[in-house]
């Protein structure tokens, strides 16, 4: 006697699929909240839930990957546009790809904040080019990246846009030596937290880099890995600052929702400063905070 073959009805299969999507969403949300390893914890769990007798193996494989895609929370990876930034001070759109943060004039400052808050419990990646102008001896001040729960820019100029902001994380590409902040003579990269611009308070750096004020585009890659809790800053293909720290817990008091922005300034010495957007990959925060687009010079 042959065992009975089971032929699932279409309606029943669809109902089962909907149930599995819900189940997968639960697994994915739990995995994200507990920061489980995808390969060793999450995928085996999903596969075990997919052992449904009523679905034939080939169909199960197709359904598995379809449901996995459906179950993933929204994750943006895009050729982002300069239109997605809120500009302040002297910042102006230069072309489809670039924003000029400051022109080459004295005492200018500009900022550009990305309009969507990001979720630091998920990975993010920023790929841009920075241009620091052409004045080396007579150049200032450089470009700063800021991560902060609102779109507020801190003190610019020597403060690199993050000074005075709490809680915050700032990455500076500093081209002007401020002795009282312990800046080295060379152009340098550093990570400072909670708005303290002095290098005694740097959590990484200052790391000296070759002259940045050469008028050329410098490729910058900032990457956050929430599982390894590692922030990597790579400039022109070299790791220039790596911070291994639970940023959400240690810097942002457990709040994973932050905005990021970029600022530049000039003083008595000057340069034009540009940022050209290549690619942004991040998870949009589920609840977008109320926008506080304040700013102070
Ligand atoms: Ca400086
Ligand atoms: Ca320089």
| CATH first level of the largest domain | Mainly Beta
Helicity level, as a percent range? 10-25%
Bound molecules: calcium ion
Cα Rg = 23 Å
End-to-end separation in angstroms reads 85 Å
Estimate what percentage of residues fall within beta strands.
25-35%
CATH topology of the largest domain: Jelly Rolls
Total beta-strand segments? 16
Count up the helices.
4
Structural class: alpha+beta
Net shape: elongated
Short summary:
By secondary structure, this protein is an alpha+beta fold.
What structural keywords apply?
single chain, 297 residues, alpha+beta, Jelly Rolls, eight-stranded antiparallel sheet, elongated, binds calcium ion
Secondary structure topology:
Layout: H1 10-34, H2 38-49, H3 57-71, E1 76-78, E2 85-89, E3 92-93, E4 98-102, E5 109-114, E6 118-119, E7 124-131, E8 142-148, E9 169-174, E10 188-193, E11 202-208, E12 218-225, E13 230-235, E14 238-244, H4 247-250, E15 257-265, E16 273-282
Antiparallel strand pairs: 1-16, 2-5, 3-4, 4-16, 5-15, 6-15, 7-12, 7-16, 8-9, 8-15, 9-10, 10-11, 12-13, 13-14
Bound molecules: calcium ion (2 copies).
One calcium ion is lined by residues 141, 158, 174, 176, 178, 183.
